[in-house]
Structure of Tubulin-specific chaperone A:
Amino acid sequence: MSEIPALKRQLKIKSGAAKRLLKENGLYQKETEDLQRKHDKMIADGAEEWDLKNAKRLVEESNKMVTDTNDRMGRAVGELRDVVIKARTEPSFAEDEDFMSAEAILEEAAM
């Protein structure tokens, strides 16, 4: 019986982490696109070499963050999936709000 509250708590924790990382990943991807556009515009405008190198470095750093958040998001979604599978075996979670929220986050991550 004590497993149900622990499972519910894990659902909340893992859902929150996956949701945060999904959002973070989207923001970093948008930032990378914006920085790449800015870098391309600087090339077209004939900016100084130092400015171009600095802009390119920013794009590379942003790409590294996208890769990092992708990895962390993948792990968080995998852990959430495991908890959701475990929760499906408990009939008390059929209409649970946290369980439904976790499934919605998994669907969003699958897209």
Observations:
- DSSP finds three helices and no strands in the chain.
- The chain has one domain: 3-110.
- The two ends are 35 Å apart (CA to CA).
- Residues 3-110 form a domain with the Methane Monooxygenase Hydroxylase; Chain G, domain 1 fold (CATH 1.20.58.90).
